[in-house]
Amino acid sequence: MNVLEIKQPYIKRTGNTSKLCSDVTWGDRRRTLWFEVENEYAECLCTERIDGFLVALLPFAMMENLNIHSDGYVSEKLLYHLKTILLPSLSANIKEYHPITFDARCDGRILESKHGVATGLSCGVDSFYTVLKHLNTEMERFRLTHLTYFNIMNSPYWTDLIDSSREFSNARIEYIRPVVQELGLKLVTVDSNFDRFYNNLHLLATFTFRYFGTVLALQKLFEKYYWSSADSFAQFSFSIESIATFDLLSVQCVSNENTTFYSTGSEVTRLEKTVYISDFDITYKYLNVCWFHLYNCSKCDKCRRTMLSLYALGKLDRYSALFDVVYFYRNKNKYLGHMLHKMIAERHHGYYGEIYKCITQQNIKIPVAAKMHAIKLIFTAIKERLKKL
């Protein structure tokens, strides 16, 4: 078996920013991977441990069947979690994840910290729920102090010639700045080149560990970090298609002596989160769920799902500044038909099932035209599947 070697991290300063770097080798290949922050947070970059790089590289090492070696140090608690709990669980339940070993020295010290309490802000339903829940909590040490945005996205369509992930992230950062200011918190942004490193692997099969690794690169800043889970505890499962389905296990196993991760939002469903955030005026100005565009397109699956949720709750009109509500009502039967089709097709999350349940509880009638549109979508899907076969 080949070995993935992670060198001791070091800091490289470039103008107004600083990079936490590590030279990584496997076989005859070598890459320098990095996390970049503004110089204000340079002192919080963790050079004492390889934790951030180790966790961010876990999906790659497991899928490529690479044992991990390092002359650097790993947090003792983190290494224990990975060796005894996380890796055996993943390799036993996900065939794409191979059992691998770690060869590195332990460090059980608690490093000097700024004791920050943070969560990521995308302005989506999950992130807004976490932010609004922890903004003014009665438990003072659990109140938010920072919000984050990390550039760790990737897509096979983003190449070295077209830096789309960075352009998209920079645009999103500018979008959320006024939100952070209005909430009275500090914004921490992190750029990285893991988007390029993982460019040929599916985002949902690697995303969470890359995110956790980015937080651990700043473990001297963050004492607590809230991970906004998209799934409820009842939906826990092992799946390579979306590793967020076992968040409850992951967040505990990537915590170390300095930084504790918490899974938030798993105690409720997506619709219940939507109910909660829809009572806060700030979401009427900034709710942004669209995956493909800087602003809500009102036509992609995530936009349609959110609009249908708000419609079922009788609150869609509150978001007329963010969604094309006029277009929704003009094409309501198509939106409802899309819901019926997706409800039949969805196997895990149950997002559309709970929207349908809410609609029926509100005694909202689904027109025949909507049902006919759903049938049309179902037959189209079957036809496309037969073509592929």
Report what the structure shows.
The protein is globular. Strands 1, 2, 3, 4, 5, 6, 7, 8, 9, 10 and 11 form an eleven-stranded mixed β-sheet that branches. Helices cover 42% and strands 19% of the residues. About 2% of the residues have low confidence. The longest helix is centred in the C-terminal third of the chain and has 21 residues. With 389 residues, it is of the alpha/beta class. Helix 12 crosses helix 13 and helix 12 packs across helix 14. It is built from 14 helices and eleven strands. It has three domains: 105 residues, no CATH class; 149 residues, Rossmann fold (3-Layer(aba) Sandwich), CATH 3.40.50; 94 residues, no CATH class. Strand 7, helix 3 and strand 8 form a beta-alpha-beta unit.
Helix content: 40-55%
As residue ranges, the low-confidence spans are 156-162
What is the correct CATH architecture of the largest domain? 3-Layer(aba) Sandwich
- CATH class descriptor of the largest domain: Alpha Beta
Report how far the terminal alpha carbons are from each other. Answer: 36 Å
Do you know the CATH topology of the largest domain?
Rossmann fold
Largest sheet: 11 strands, mixed
Indicate the overall shape: globular
Structural class: alpha/beta
The H/E string reads EEEEHEHEEHEHEHHEHEHHHHHHH
Mean pLDDT: 91
What's the count of strands?
11
Q: Helical element count?
A: 14
State which percent range the strand residues make up: 15-25%
Number of domains: 3
What is the CA-atom radius of gyration, in angstroms?
22 Å
Give a quick rundown of the structure:
By secondary structure, the protein is an alpha/beta fold.
